[in-house]
Amino acid sequence: MTTTQPREAAVLPVTMADVEAAASRIENVAMRTPVSTSRTLNERLEGEVVFKCENLQRAGAFKIRGAYNAISQLSQDQRSRGVLTFSSGNHAQGVALACQYLKTPATIFMPKDAPRVKLQATREYGAEIVQYDRSEEERQELGGRLAEERGLTIIPPYDNPHIVAGQGTCVREFVDDVGPLDVLVVPVGGGGLISGCAIAMKALAPTCKVIGVEPEAGDDAVRSFKTGTLQRVDNPDTIADGARTNTIGELNFQIIRELVDDMITVPDAALVKAMWFFLERMKLLVEPTGCLAAAAVMEGLVEARGRRVGVVLSGGNVDVRQLGELFTRFLPTV
């Protein structure tokens, strides 16, 4: 008779010690964001759903956590020359704000169709913006050339151990504030947030299930998770602009494969439905990408009955002038 040997746990490139160190670095920079619940939602789902409100974070999203953790560890020479990154908006704002704190020049590649509110805020934080056409140009290639020409240090949006460790501080706070959770549900774009969250959650509560959520049109992470090989989706057509990445990062994929329990998708209509609920019932402004995890729970794709479910609301940077258009388009009967 043969026996199956248990698979050895992989040695991961980011540890809980890295998350703890990041928490110390960002302590006086990133906000300790509040948590919130809805009695109406809990009664409907017959469970307890707790939201970590990163939509109320500085610069309107969780991104300041990883950005500051990464940039603060650069040498004085690197910071004096400046950094470069590429982002549709939230990482751009996080890097720009971190650079403002650290007196570091920031150059940021942003797509021409990035939300106006995110472009404007990034400029106001003092960054130089270089715009490109995401349907015709490759941002990493363009950014890499400019970084080499100017001697700039590239701060990737998600595929970087310091970024991942910084994002993990979100869940470190979450568990400290609300105690044990049965399930943690996290939005997924490039994979930096869920990687850091999974590291922290599995260290603090190993039995908690960690679930990632993508938009249906941008399902590269879900397909990667299910097939075991990195998948791509080019220029996905979704209102969740923060999740319009072509593929998740290699480092992030390694962590996701080891620590994440499941990955699912939700349609854009479910995101708008969640946005409406947050505005009407909880008085919270949450952007479409920030609603990914919440929408999965609200739609019953993640079982909440009889469980304590933690949900990360990853951002709140939405152009309020477009809310009416979104609600009319996706919720015509509301």
Record the SSE blueprint.
Layout: H1 16-26, E1 35-36, H2 39-45, E2 48-53, H3 63-71, H4 76-81, E3 83-86, H5 90-102, E4 106-111, H6 116-124, E5 128-132, H7 139-150, E6 153-154, H8 161-178, E7 183-187, H9 192-204, E8 209-215, H10 220-227, H11 250-259, E9 262-266, H12 268-282, H13 292-298, E10 308-313, H14 323-330
Parallel strand pairs: 2-10, 3-4, 3-6, 4-5, 7-8, 7-10, 8-9
Antiparallel strand pairs: 1-2
Helix pairs in contact: 1-3, 1-8, 3-5, 3-8, 5-6, 8-9, 9-11, 12-13
**Total beta strands:** 10
Total DSSP helices:
14
Q: If you consult CATH, what is the topology of the largest domain?
A: Rossmann fold
> Which word captures the global form?
globular
Structural class: alpha/beta
At CATH's second level, what is the architecture of the largest domain?
A: 3-Layer(aba) Sandwich
Largest sheet: 6 strands, mixed
| CA-CA gap between termini | 63 Å
Average pLDDT figure: 93
Concise description?
With 334 residues, the chain is an alpha/beta fold. The protein has helices at 16-26, 39-45, 63-71, 76-81, 90-102, 116-124, 139-150, 161-178, 192-204, 220-227, 250-259, 268-282, 292-298, 323-330, and strands at 35-36, 48-53, 83-86, 106-111, 128-132, 153-154, 183-187, 209-215, 262-266, 308-313.
